[in-house]
Write a structure and sequence with these properties.
Bound molecules: 2'-deoxycytidine-5'-monophosphate
CATH class: Alpha Beta
Strand order of the largest sheet: 5-3-7-2-8-9
Number of strands: 9
Helix content: 40-55%
Order of helices and strands: EEHEHHEEEHHEHEHHEH
Strand content: 15-25%
Shape: globular
Largest sheet: 6 strands, parallel
Low-confidence stretches: none
Mean pLDDT: 90
Distance between the termini: 30 Å
Number of domains: 1
Radius of gyration: 17 Å
């Protein structure tokens, strides 16, 4: 597992700009918000969920029994997973599995149904958190996930935990074809597993700002975060 610049060998350009952590359960709107905030603020973007999904896809392709934590931990070490930085200082980092971007293969019902079991294995989290930290360390990035503010980057300059009612989250997910049109049942099961697991469960950091997006528009949440970023940039040495 490694992090590379665009093209594979370019030196990675570090920045002194802010790190923004956006955590929350599935369907809270965090992917849409995180992408839009990164675009609006001219920051890089990392979807850490895609790293767990790519690893899960690799294990499914290798026919590893995902309920067997030991087999998962063993097989995970051999998976060829790369995070590729976008060119310049903005844009989404690409997740490559065996050198190829898996695209919608990350969003199938099979991956939705198994990713939480894989993400609950401590050895998997250790590997992927290490990979994610190497990229976040470059700076100037919006990172979305479940444990960014608590584990991956507790020193983030802006820390937000996005929530929405269960009903609203299920509604958004079933509307979202990129999310695989996940059913309310699968979503609820995945959230329960992600929040109930022993290893870094989905949780708001003590110093995170909790934003309930049930009754707010995406625009309102994005604007709020852009203001927080502006304030954080103003106080940060650059
Ligand atoms: O964000 P997502 O729904 O694509 O994430 C897929 C799964 O990956 C999610 O069910 C739990 C896991 N995950 C995690 O454990 N930690 C993260 N930082 C991000 C995702």
């Amino acid at each position: 597992m490694k992090v590379v610049g665009l093209g594979g060998d370019e030196p990675v350009e570090g920045t002194a700009d802010v790190v923004v952590a956006i955590d929350g359960p599935a369907g809270s709107g965090k992917s849409t918000v995180a992408r839009r905030v990164a675009e609006g603020a001219g920051l890089r973007y990392l979807d850490t969920g895609a790293t767990y999904r790519a690893l899960t896809l690799a294990l499914l392709r290798r026919r590893i029994p995902v309920e067997d934590a030991e087999a998962v931990a063993d097989a995970a070490k051999a998976v060829d997973l790369t995070l590729e930085l976008p060119p310049g200082r903005a844009g989404a980092a690409r997740v490559l599995l065996d050198g190829v971007e898996p695209g919608l293969a990350l969003r199938t019902p099979e991956v939705n149904a198994t990713v939480s079991a894989v993400a609950a294995v401590p050895a998997v989290r250790e590997l992927l958190v290490g990979l994610q930290r190497s990229l976040v360390g470059v700076g100037g990035i919006v990172v979305e996930g479940r444990d960014i503010g608590t584990v991956v980057w507790p020193d983030a300059d802006v820390k937000v935990f996005l929530t929405a009612s269960e009903h609203e989250r299920a509604r958004r997910r079933s509307d979202d074809t990129e999310g695989g049109g996940e059913t309310a049942e699968t979503l609820a099961r995945r959230d329960a597993l992600d929040s109930g697991r022993a290893a870094s469960p989905t949780r708001a950091a003590a110093d995170a700002l909790v934003i309930d997006s049930t009754t707010r528009t995406i625009d309102q949440v994005v604007d709020h975060l852009l203001q927080l970023i502006e304030a954080a940039r103003a106080t940060r040495p650059r």
